[in-house]
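<instruction>
Derive structure tokens from the sequence
<entry> Chain with its tokenised backbone below:
===
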Amino acid sequence: MNHRFTTSLRRALVALALVVVLLAVAAGAAAAKTTTYAATIKDGRAAAQALLTQSGAASLSLSLVSGDRVVWQEAFGYADKATQTAPQADTMYGIGSLSKMLAAVAVMKLVDEGKVKLDVPFARYVPAFTMLSPAHRQITVRMLLDHSSGLPGSTYGNDLTGAYYPGYLQQVLDALAGERLKTTPGYMSVYCNDGYTLLEALVPAVTGKSFPGYVQDEILTPLGMAHSAYPLRTFADGTYAKCYRGDTARPFEVVNLLAAGGLYSTPTDMSRLGAMLMNGGIYNGTRILSADAVAQMAADETLGSFNPVPCTALRYGLGWDTVTQPGLKAVAVTGWQKGGDSADYHASFIVAPGAKLAVTVTGVAPLGSASLGTLGEGILLHALVDQGSIHRLPTPIPSKPPAVKPATAAQLAEMKGYWALSSQMFRVTAEPSAPQSLTLSMLTGDGWTTVTEGLRLRTDGRFHAGGSASGYSTITAGGRRYLVNAWIGGYGHYRDAGLMSQKLQPGDPLRPAWASRSGEVWLAVNEQPDSSTYTSNAGPLLIVNAVPGLEGWVTVTTPAYGTQVVDSISDHLGAMFLQIPGGCSRDLEDAVVTQHGAEEWIGWGSTLYRPQASVPALATGANPVTIGSEGYTEWRAVPVAASLHISAGTAWYLYDADMKVLGHGATLPVTADAPAGSFLALFGPASSGTTVTVTP
């Protein structure tokens, strides 16, 4: 990247964004004060109720702000099914990555105060930050905010727990100290949670305050966001919306990535943040940020970086997922958007600064930020009509694909083959009876599973299935071949496209060391007992496999990461290698094999895994167990159906042969029935002892 060009471009973009922000303060004021938005509310209410019914989710909550006033706030469903309690305006939801907006505002406030400079290396502020790659010293504060740092992605170990884990930030720093960068800092922007977690170390380094304390004092309190908080303690029943699997309430969810995804809030509280941003940094007469800081947040940071197929939905600003919200762009309105997802909670936040409108939609699983974003986009489009900013709702694009045209052998060859992204692998093959027709399959535990059949080349140069306007094409950029996905998005009135996956070529025969690991299973040993790694029915597993049909590559599958392909460049390193700007090479890791006595263990991010095959079996009678000096989880196999009496410890989990949770607890001693083939995980202080008595 040409540094002078990028700096000049950035200055020009910030100047343009500042003009937009300043005009937004003046524009649309009369409409903001007088419009009732009655039609918007009527149609939005129907759409929200339909989405809730269709998804089966327990509840959602939303708000629409115009200027400085909330013109519509409403919640739907049940915050608590057991008591049939409806959510209220002050009912909190986890907002996932919407939390990044608060982190970005916090950093920009420090920039306004002269305590932080965006283009100074982060390591100057936090000298404890180190990595194996010397280029980590080039990572600036801006790169953490715009996802261009080159960090691997997300540290999933202990990211979700039942109670706040204060050691998470240090865990991330420790993990990064043993990891490589995946790209040169500044080369491209790829969504990265760890970049925002590192900001939790920046704030105390320059202010002396904790990150949550600074956000509370400098943002939440001045904005009057009284129902927003980080889960440093478990919130009381009735203050937050519960998530359900069926009719069973999920435990309270703590996202330990506080800056990246940990905040609980309400749509009305987020409306105050939205009003501040679209009013040039001022809310209710109080200045939170300078207009220049808001403008810098709203500049497109992806321009000038490696981004051969710019996706409108991922034009990162500082905090924002996109500063060109595609549904609003299609009607010539500037929009900024941020989405958020955790395991149980989902949210979308969209601001239209020129129209002085903002919408926040939050909900519980199985809703997602995409569906909530579509709802929010529709609400804003209706509101733009109500206030007269656009004349009518946009017309949805027909979903019928273009006409078929013959594909050349070269075009078919470019499509066929193996494609990888951070959490999945695909294969494109020709259908034997119809060589012009392609099939897209996904790698699963059962092999290649068909996703889409009947892909034919169309007159738009893309391969479409018969009933879909979404299509695929290929492009070569940066010396790599990419599969490009194009789709109709949001409300259905715009097209977007982006890089979906990177092509793999057959390599040398798989190294014997990795071939011997194919099909083997490893078990997590170094996370907190209440980590989702242990509590999830997907199991605390890591599975290594060769790629069927593709020589020389290895997949690593974990519940948190999905299936990731690595390059077996040595007997002890399966190396990350994907370089896909946007979101499809996020959360990469190296698989690092180390020797623990006679066993091979695998490090994957901050989590360490031991082989399942060598787990000691419990014998009938008393089985003394010592937690090792490192405090790692002790695993035991249960070969026959038996009653297990566990004498001591801090926690235990019992899994069936498929690693589904059969029972768990933190109260000991305890007795539990275990089927044959099950596995017992035992937790306790380092070097402590317990006894498992087995009675068949």
About this structure: The chain has four domains: 3-386, 409-503, 512-611, 615-695. The longest strand covers residues 434-444. Residues 3-386 form a domain with the Beta-lactamase fold (CATH 3.40.710.10).
